[in-house]
Amino acid sequence: MGENMNRYMTLGQLGDGTFGSVVLGQRIDTGEKVAIKRDKMLSEPVIRNIMYQVLQGLAFMHKHGFFHRDMKPENLLCMGPDLIKIADFGLAREIRSRPPYTDYVSTRWYRAPEVLLRSTSYSSPIDIWAVGCIMAEVYTYRPLFPGSSEIDEIFKICSVLGTPDKRDWPEGHQLASAISFTFPQFSPTPLETLIPNASPEAIHLIRDMLLWNPSKRPTAQNAIRYSYFQVGQKLGGGNAGGAMGSQAASNAYIGQTGNVRRSNKWDDDDFKDVMGYILLSLTIRLPIICLSVCRRSTF
């Protein structure tokens, strides 16, 4: 039976069902436990709306001099049928603050290569890398780089992106040499084969957000201008179509030329609202929005 998944939180995985994994869930208002199975894949308009809001939020945050340092699906909260908010700012730092920064930030699967290689002078591009990982995962429901350790994480990245060219990212090779690490030799795997349900425009955006060299990744503000978002769809808290639900009163409309007709850009009150989640312990993985309750039972 399909229900509003904002009423539930996930407690753990029960097993694999015929059509996907089954997780243990709990209704927030009553405490009732249920079995939840993953429903159909999210449509691209839904994913586009999610990613637009995430990038819009990051653009505002970066503009105000902060970077998150722990972007991952668990830190994206579904606040309504169409509204995604960034949560958990416990690792956030000021962009203008002076290095060295700690080298243990962000969850491993979403950790940028410069951080994996122990850079202490990274900045906001690590958030963009994480968003690239998240975007790929939203399409497939599988992490793109599910490394079991930091070394394995780099191997997983190399197996998808190919070995970084020293001419393209000399700083990365210097970081690797400093910790006596040698990049494994891989040819790149086309992202189209790993994310077959993504459009060419989506692949283009993901690929650019996952560039080895952090200085070559797009800023959050520039990422919003990519052709992926220029499809005449209402974005930024309104109706994305498909499974995301009803239309909200205030949204952004991005036309073929990229002009914003009605804006839902974040203001200072929005920023304060999001910062209020710093101590929030409730985290729900993004795929919760496309789950359905399949049976009620006693656990």
From TrEMBL:
Classification via InterPro entries: Kinase-like_dom_sf (IPR011009), MAPK (IPR050117), Prot_kinase_dom (IPR000719), Protein_kinase_ATP_BS (IPR017441), Ser/Thr_kinase_AS (IPR008271)
Pfam family, one: Pkinase
Chain segments annotated as transmembrane: none
Domain Protein kinase per the UniProt entry, residue ranges: 1-229
SUPFAM superfamilies registered for this protein in UniProt: Protein kinase-like (PK-like)
KW Kinase (keyword) present: yes
Residues noted as binding ATP in the record, renumbered to the chain: 37
GO MF, any single term: ATP binding
Keywords carried by this UniProt record: ATP-binding, Kinase, Nucleotide-binding, Phosphoprotein, Serine/threonine-protein kinase, Transferase
Family: Belongs to the protein kinase superfamily. CMGC Ser/Thr protein kinase family. CDC2/CDKX subfamily.
PANTHER family: MITOGEN-ACTIVATED PROTEIN KINASE
Protein name stated in the entry: Serine/threonine-protein kinase ICK
Species, as recorded: Amphibalanus amphitrite (Striped barnacle)
GN (gene name): Ick_0
